[in-house]
TrEMBL record:
One of its GO terms (molecular function) is ligase activity. Residues 6-183 form the BPL/LPL catalytic domain. It holds the Pfam family DUF4444. The keyword Ligase applies. Keywords: Ligase. Residues 198-231 form the DUF4444 domain. InterPro entries: aa-tRNA-synth_II/BPL/LPL (IPR045864), BPL_LPL_catalytic (IPR004143), DUF4444 (IPR028044). It comes from Litoreibacter janthinus. The keyword Lipid metabolism does not apply. This is Biotin-(Acetyl-CoA carboxylase) ligase.
Length: 233
């Protein structure tokens, strides 16, 4: 298998096991930011990026939508133009309407107002369906079942990191306005009734920190991105 090549300031390491868990463990030990752990199986692409934010956690968690938009841009550059990618607020990735994978996030410490020592965003993408009986799980899909069989997993991983870097640079240079516009156009379920983290309501949009705005009756509930932080694997 061809080893992925990453842009400057990023380096890669093949993972034996879950890249997200490995990235969190190595980040806690003090590894350099920009380290990308990956596991490329025939039917599944898993990867995780280590970040070292220099801002409070409630701001730094914009890295999650940056990585989501980065994935959409990467697949958009490599896949057929008719393939549609949408992003769930809580991490799911949808391809042509079916759930195809997810993003996840962890950081330490979890204090929203403190600058985290590290932050990790993980990607988990199904390349081939787990079962040939696709009708058993009509809401789930896999990348190569959606007209993307020519997309090379190594190239997609490389492109995800590149496009994520572009998004990080745009955030650093000019703030989050462009990210809000791009992510808002990809938001799965916006304007509909959804159930997230056990909270049901009407998905109105997000606040300036990408917190979910959920209308519940006559009130609007704000669910911050910090609610998505996973405990250390």
């Amino acid at each position: 298998m061809t080893q992925p090549q990453f842009p400057p300031l990023f380096s890669g390491e093949a993972a034996k096991g879950d890249p997200f868990a490995l990235a969190c463990g190595r980040a806690a030990e003090g590894c350099d930011a920009g380290l990308v752990f990956y596991d490329l199986a025939p039917d599944r692409l898993r990867a995780a990026i280590v970040f070292a934010p220099e801002t409070a956690l409630h701001d730094a968690l914009a890295a999650l939508p940056v990585c989501g938009v980065g994935f959409q841009n990467a697949l958009g550059a490599l896949g057929p133009p008719e393939v549609a990618v949408h992003l769930g607020w809580d991490g799911p990735i949808y391809v042509n309407g079916g759930r195809c994978g997810a993003l996840r996030v962890a950081a330490s410490p979890k204090d929203p107002m403190a600058e985290p020592d590290w932050l990790v965003v993980g990607l988990d993408l199904w390349l081939w369906p787990a079962s040939e009986e696709g009708g058993l799980t009509p809401d789930q899909t896999a990348l190569y079942a959606e007209g993307c069989a020519e997309v090379d997993a190594v190239e997609l991983l490389e492109a995800w990191v590149r496009h994520t870097l572009v998004g990080l640079n745009a955030w650093s240079d000019s703030g989050l306005a462009s990210l809000h516009r791009e992510w808002g156009g990809l938001a799965h379920g916006k304007g509909t009734d959804i159930d997230v983290l056990g909270h049901a309501g009407h998905f109105l949009g997000v606040d300036e920190h990408f917190g979910l705005l959920l209308r519940q009756g006559d009130t609007t509930r704000l669910i911050p991105l910090t609610e998505l932080l996973e405990d250390l694997p």
